[in-house]
Amino acid sequence: MATAQFLSTHITEQVKMDPNMPLKAIQSHLSEKFEIHVSQSKAMRAKHMANKKIWGDFESQYHQLRDYLNEVKRCNPDTTVKLEVEIEPNLQVETRKFKRVYICLGSLKKGFRAGKRDLLGLDGTFMKGPFPGQILTAVGVDSNHGIYPVAYAIVEAETTNSWKWFLECLGDDLDLQANSNFTFVSDRQKGIIPAIAQMFPSAEHRFCLRHIQENMKLQWKGQAYKDLLWECAAAYTVPQFKTAMEKLKRFNAGCHDWLMKIPLQHWSRAHFTGRCKCDVLLNNMCEVFNKQIVDARDKPIYSCLEYIRVYLMKRIVNVCKVIESKDGPLTPTAQGILDKAKTEASKLHVLFNGEHRYQVSGPMNDQCIVDVRAKTCTCRQWELTGIPCKHAVAANWNMGVNGINVVPEAWVDISYRLTTWKEMYSFKIEPINGRLLWDKTNCPSILLPPKHHKQVGRPKKKGRKAEMKQKQVGTSAKLSRKGKTVTCDKCKHPGHNSRTCKGQGGPSNKT
């Protein structure tokens, strides 16, 4: 009588407190409690039933999805919720199949605008449940270089069409136009590049350098190639970039030519614009957020969405506690970067031209021109990051010697101010009621889950490796030997190998 259904009622609380509870621990707990042997398969079924009681049924939650979205929108003013269903040719049918859902909470929308930084990372991660789907996310960077999620969606797949739909919804929420000077960071997924090019042709699109490196590793492995790639990408000026590329060319001309086929404005700092005041080369903001919501991906539809919303609500509270303990004009990260520049500025020599330009020189032919009126330096670090570089700090100190007292902190971009950081997190996500208190929507149709296509083999739990993602222009590496002809080592004739060689190619050429 110790069925999996019976045993599941006795482990529900344990599974709720520890969703990653191992099967061996469940077996041990039930064996000690009932003094019986519990097989691994029965423990697995019991855990699955317990999870179903905790998080709900995968199919039935689609029926209640409209009620959940309505509750989220009711409790959080200015929230954008968009639900799209599959086209049904027969209008008399009372059911509709789920296709996509998009959520941008009102507080996150306001907080991102308050951050005054036009930068978003875009990425997608797959759902682990019985129904197919991808979670698309848009994550920004706050004043302390932390992540700031803005919007998320569940779509059928990472295609150009789904990304265009997501970007269209995002553009409406953030007031982005086709000519907006915005900056996106992505991992070069095959659907996102044409989507950004079509929706925001004037936007700057940066490619995550780690994914470029992973593609490079298919042909050129080793720490030396990694270091040379980063040296090229991290150069702030075009002359420095050309010097690094020449160094790579001398090391391996083939790798140099492969890298040059990727448009430079997508991965080289020397070719970035300074519009977003951020010099990031990686899409780490999305990677960090995806790691936080990994436990949401194997849950039913609105339990998944609710898991993400609860995480975002708790994160705002946690960051606010950190903000309350800080003081000063700048955020801790920005202050640390500026303090490092101050340390290096003490070794520099400054010459004033009598107006608003300074010649700042140091060791190893380090000499730049600082324009304090335009707030630029020819090293381009100030322009790209929004934080004064060591040359600008040295010029600032020279101004003090000449009677012009301006602290370097006053030259830091407003997006790094502590007041900006506080304002970003001043908008709170409101809690919602439980399912029993939700208002019923008046929609006449019943929402059904998408069509389930069961894949052959064991379900995958891990994401695709970076090198398995779509190769873009300039990547010639192949992962498959399909279509290639082997050559026999014995007779040197094609069509077979040495193990199956029976002399069909003639006598061996070996002596």
Automatic annotation (TrEMBL):
Bias-annotated ranges (Polar residues): 497-511
Start-end of Basic residues biased regions: 450-464
UniProt keyword Zinc-finger, yes or no: yes
Signal peptide: none
Domain SWIM-type: 358-400
Annotated segments matching region Disordered: 449-511
Assigned keywords, A-Z: Metal-binding, Zinc, Zinc-finger
GO molecular function: zinc ion binding
Protein name: SWIM-type domain-containing protein
Lineage: Eukaryota, Viridiplantae, Streptophyta, Embryophyta, Tracheophyta
